[in-house]
Write a structure and sequence with these properties.
Low-confidence stretches of chain B: none
Number of helices of chain A: 8
Shape of chain B: globular
Low-confidence stretches of chain A: 231-244
Largest sheet of chain A: 6 strands, mixed
Helix content of chain B: over 70%
Radius of gyration of chain A: 23 Å
Number of strands of chain A: 21
Largest sheet of chain B: none
Shape of chain A: globular
Number of strands of chain B: 0
Strand content of chain B: under 5%
Oligomer: heterodimer
CATH topology of the largest domain in chain A: Rossmann fold
Helix content of chain A: 10-25%
Number of helices of chain B: 10
CATH architecture of the largest domain in chain A: 3-Layer(aba) Sandwich
Structural class of chain B: mainly alpha
Order of helices and strands of chain A: EEEHEEEEHHHEHEHEEHEEEEEEEEHEE
Mean pLDDT of chain B: 88
CATH class of the largest domain in chain A: Alpha Beta
Number of domains of chain B: 1
Strand content of chain A: 35-45%
CATH superfamily of the largest domain in chain A: P-loop containing nucleotide triphosphate hydrolases
Chain lengths: 371, 233
């Protein structure tokens, strides 16, 4: 099998009355999150990939197949693009049972292109018990599982998911997460995942594209992009409500477990972090988020305190944002940058200025993935 | 036996059923096509088409019959051509009666189907496209099944309208026993001759019974389809 140059190679524009989408990017597999506030063009972009709307100009290549090229007048209809599309509202066909819904796409493809097995999907998405049910009898989460299964059974070259969890409550969301993780990890289908919530990105994505008013605002590995977003001043914090609270995302390895105190020791390129015991194997990777307000600062190595995590850092920058608060950018010896939010009064009294060598006390660490 | 229909009544009843049946069958594909165009497409002249479709509803039936006569009658523009080319004519036979009934019921048929197409979610059709179905397959596997309730309602309305059709029919194809003398026209004929009170009552009763049976059947059918589409509710 020839390995395609890119799973997705996109460069398109689409203009509406009061909105212009103009993006260029490549994607090479895994799960990429398409992130941005509502109205940023996420769904427009995904619909253009799927062939449900035609861009004004540009090129879309999927696994080296040109599905749209304005100069060559190529615009393959959706049914010839071999993509799976999971919509926000599951869109199950109401006049068909779950089984007929699942089989809808299978019939449309030639035998030799069917690389997804019926039994695999039933197992991964746990659909066996639902087959004879009618869509209106399913819960929201079950509907989404059927919709995902249906899209996958058409053996897509790429799976598009447009906020598949946004219509579900937190409990149902938690039900679906493992299913999406297992299709990402077991089936090896490249996924473009539209979302406007950070936890979903942190849990599922390898890469992220940030769209803002139709433009590509940032793209890259999840931790890099999200950290930069939080620091960039060009972004209206209210637009990115979920991450408007300053914090830092870091990736660490599980170094060892302390069974006696039920703690796990994480290695952050040489720094050690203690967190409550995790059900993870030594050596596995975990993504964590340190909120700025959970980081306290001290001028001297503190003694006799309850905080376990204490790291020696340099002050990189100090910015006054609120009336009473100051955001302090810190850098550890290993080069990790993160933020602390303290009062202006503390900053003045402790004389925290760029260049100062101080101690950061991390009160708690939120683990965002790998759980 | 007092309740057994006479041969004349049987003839009128059978003719009415035949005419109404063919009126529905012939207009069905046109009604689906026009309803789909009106529900899903936007084009210049859409209001014109919409108005044209609704004309039989607002025009006096006699006028519709007159228009049919001058276009599709034996000396009509299209009628003459049909006669000379295919030896086929609508003039003064039951086919003409079916055509007149079909035209008169057309607006009701289109309206019912159009409503059900508008209620069928186009987003489901988009989903079917992404699953590999071409537009024709989408129509057969998604749109058509979703619009069956409207199809049944429309077919029944059109059938009932055809059973009652009088003005356009008598203008277009006159009153010929065994060919165009349907139940309403038979009733009218009896009215024309003195002393037919009992025959008139029997004929009127027959027409009423027929309407009730047709209504009941359609309600039952529509309920079955709705149950399949959306579950028992």
């Amino acid at each position: 099998m020839v390995v395609p140059e890119h799973v997705l190679d996109v460069s398109i524009t689409k203009t509406y009355d009061d909105f212009e989408l103009n993006v260029t990017f490549q994607f090479d597999g895994g799960l990429i999150a398409l992130f941005g506030p509502s109205g940023s063009g996420k769904t427009t972009l995904v619909n253009a990939l799927a062939g449900l709307i035609a861009p004004d100009s540009g090129v879309i290549r999927i696994s080296d197949v040109t599905v749209f090229d304005s100069t060559a007048a190529i615009n393959l209809p959706p049914e010839k693009r071999h993509l799976g599309y999971v919509f926000q509202d599951a869109r199950l066909f109401p006049h068909m049972t779950v089984e007929k819904n699942l089989r809808f796409g299978i019939k449309q493809i030639p035998d030799d292109e069917r690389h997804v097995k019926w039994t695999d999907i039933l197992k991964i998405m746990d659909l066996g018990k639902l087959l004879s049910r009618w869509p209106h009898t399913l819960s929201g989460g079950e509907k989404q599982r059927v919709a995902i299964g249906r899209a996958l059974l058409a053996s897509p070259r790429l799976l598009l998911m447009d906020e598949p969890l946004s219509s579900l409550d937190i409990k149902r969301k938690a039900e679906i997460f493992p299913f999406i993780e297992s299709l990402r990890d077991q089936l090896n289908v490249p996924i473009v995942y539209v979302t406007h919530t950070v936890p979903e990105i942190l849990r599922l994505a390898d890469q992220v594209i940030v769209l803002d008013q139709g433009k590509l605002a940032a793209m890259g590995p999840v931790d890099q992009v999200l950290n930069r977003l939080e620091i960039q001043t060009g972004f209206e914090p209210s637009v990115f409500e979920p991450i408007s609270e300053l914090g830092t995302i870091l990736t660490a390895n599980v170094e060892s477990h302390d069974e006696q105190d039920q703690l796990t020791i994480l290695d952050l390129s040489g720094e050690r972090l203690y967190v409550p015991r995790l059900a993870l194997n030594v050596g596995s990777t975990v993504r964590l988020r340190i909120r700025a307000r959970d980081v306290a600062l001290a001028r001297h190595p503190p003694k006799d305190i309850s905080v376990l995590n204490c790291i020696k850092v340099n002050v990189v920058d100090v910015t006054n944002k609120g009336a009473s608060h100051t955001d302090v950018k810190l850098r550890s010896a290993a080069g990790h940058e993160f933020w602390s939010q303290i009062t202006r009064r503390s900053q003045r009294e402790l004389a925290i200025e760029p260049g100062a060598e101080i101690w950061a006390l991390i009160k708690s660490v939120a683990l965002e993935s790998g759980l | 036996m007092m309740f057994a229909p006479t041969p004349l009544e049987q003839e009128a009843l059978w003719l009415s059923l035949t005419v109404a049946f063919w009126a529905v069958v012939i207009s069905l594909p046109f009604a689906v096509a026009v309803a789909w165009v009106l529900a899903r497409l936007n084009f210049w002249g859409k209001i014109l088409l919409d108005g044209l479709v609704h004309l039989p509803l607002v025009l006096p039936p006699v006028v519709v019959g007159y228009f049919l006569l001058v276009t599709l009658g034996r000396n009509g523009v299209i009628g003459r051509w049909l006669d000379q080319t295919f030896g086929f004519t609508f003039a003064f036979n039951w086919k003409g009666a079916a055509l007149a009934a079909g035209v008169m019921g057309f607006p009701l048929f289109v309206r019912a189907i159009r409503l059900s197409i508008e209620a069928a979610d186009p987003r489901l059709e988009a989903a079917a496209r992404t699953l590999g179905a071409n537009p024709l397959q989408v129509f057969w596997r998604i749109t058509l099944p979703l619009m069956t309730p409207g199809l049944i309602t429309g077919a029944l309305l059109s059938f009932a309208r055809a059973l009652g059709e009088f003005g356009a029919t008598i203008t277009f194809v006159a009153n010929i026993p065994g060919q165009t003398r349907t139940l309403p026209i038979a009733i009218y004929t009896i009215l024309q001759s003195p002393g037919g009170d009992e025959a008139l009552f029997r004929m009127a009763l027959l027409a009423t019974l027929l309407a009730i049976v047709a209504l009941g059947a359609s309600e039952y059918l529509a309920r079955q389809v709705r149950k399949r589409l959306h579950g028992a509710s």
